């Protein structure tokens, strides 16, 4: 228990307010009339306070730089996180991972599925040809990787022959 | 009993694969008009357009008409891509391809009869008559 825990008497409360200059003028005049010694006491306390303020050596703070840094850290607003950079980097990683997955899928498809379903190699072999009449001749031509049954002996179709 | 079973198995092996089709088309090959660029080939001919241009020495190819029939064992199929050109085809599956017997008619005239082995998506071309507008070509293709 320290002194601040002891309740003040009404006189002490009023004296404290008087010394601190907190009493209204009428109340202050009444208090001075009732307690003439209070004015001298107030003057003595004021003189003591002034003497203490003017003669006491200011306390020196050791490790001031450390405290400055701590205080600055507390009062400086937190640096905003660079939201523009991190998502871009993550996006790049996602795109790269997606491209790898797509390549792997295409590779697996070509290796396992495509040979069975897609036959792209050209294969056409003419075993025999026989022209429909004696005016026509037919022969097989393999040129530029395609097979053509080449028929000669046609009469040219006129322009009014409708092709449809 | 075993002989009957073998016969059924052989018939099944030589029959066409379900869903396979024969596609035929009548093509007109021609040169682009002066000052105009050649028309792009139709998608059906695009993979072979450069080779056709080299063999037939024409710049552009258009499909005048086409017909598709599902293959069904030994049955003869009649394909009529245009009203003037038509074909009779019989296809029998052999390995990965088809053994085809084809007859090509122009109006009532039989032009040619041919026997060929065709792989899927490997067209066989037949050079038909010339027309004022260009060269008639017919094509057959097995499509899975």
Note the topology:
The complex is a heterodimer of chains A (164) and B (144).
Chain A: H1 10-19, H2 25-34, H3 37-55, H4 64-75, H5 85-117, E1 124-131, E2 137-143, E3 146-152
Antiparallel strand pairs in A: 2-3
Chain B: H1 2-14, E1 21-30, H2 49-56, E2 60-70, E3 77-79, E4 85-94, E5 97-106, E6 109-118, E7 124-131, E8 134-143
Characterization of this structure:
- The complex is a heterodimer of chains A (164) and B (144).
- With 164 residues, chain A is α+β, with helices and mostly antiparallel strands.
- Chain A contains 5 helices and 3 strands; from the N terminus they run H-H-H-H-H-E-E-E.
- The relative contact order of chain A is 0.04.
- Chain B has one domain (2-143).
- Chain B has helices spanning 2-14, 49-56, and strands at residues 21-30, 60-70, 77-79, 85-94, 97-106, 109-118, 124-131, 134-143.
- In chain B, a hairpin with a 2-residue loop joins strand 5 (97-106) and strand 6.
- Chain B is globular.
- The interface between A and B is large, with 36 and 41 residues.
Compact overview of the structure:
Chain A is α+β, with helices and mostly antiparallel strands and 164 residues long. Chain A contains five helices and three strands, in the order H-H-H-H-H-E-E-E.
């Amino acid at each position: 228990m320290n002194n601040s825990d002891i309740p003040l008497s009404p006189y002490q409360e009023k004296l404290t307010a008087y010394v601190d200059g907190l009493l209204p003028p009428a109340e202050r005049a009444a208090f001075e009339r009732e307690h003439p010694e209070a004015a001298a006491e107030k003057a003595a306390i004021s003189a003591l306070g002034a003497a203490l303020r003017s003669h006491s050596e200011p306390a020196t703070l050791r490790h001031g730089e450390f405290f400055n840094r701590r205080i600055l850290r507390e009062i400086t607003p937190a640096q905003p996180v660079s939201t523009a950079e991190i998502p871009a980097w993550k996006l790049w990683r996602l795109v790269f991972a997606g491209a790898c997955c797509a390549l792997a899928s295409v590779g697996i498809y070509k290796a396992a599925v495509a040979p069975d379903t897609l036959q792209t190699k050209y294969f056409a072999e003419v075993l025999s040809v026989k022209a429909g009449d004696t005016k026509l001749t037919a022969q097989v031509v393999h040129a530029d990787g395609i097979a053509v049954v080449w028929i000669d002996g046609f009469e040219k179709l006129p322009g009014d022959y409708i092709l449809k | 009993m075993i002989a009957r079973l073998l016969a059924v198995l052989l018939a099944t092996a030589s029959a066409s694969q379900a869903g396979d089709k024969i596609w035929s088309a009548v093509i007109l090959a021609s040169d682009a008009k002066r000052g105009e660029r050649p028309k792009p080939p139709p998608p059906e001919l695009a993979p072979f357009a450069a080779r056709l241009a080299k063999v037939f020495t024409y710049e552009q190819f258009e499909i005048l008409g086409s017909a598709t029939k599902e293959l069904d064992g030994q049955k003869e199929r009649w394909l009529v891509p245009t009203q003037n050109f038509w074909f009779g085809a019989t296809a029998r599956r052999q390995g990965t391809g088809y053994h085809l017997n084809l007859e090509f008619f122009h109006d009532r005239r039989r032009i040619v009869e041919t026997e060929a082995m065709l792989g899927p998506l490997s067209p066989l071309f037949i050079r038909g008559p010339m027309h004022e507008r260009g060269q008639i070509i017919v094509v057959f293709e097995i499509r899975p």
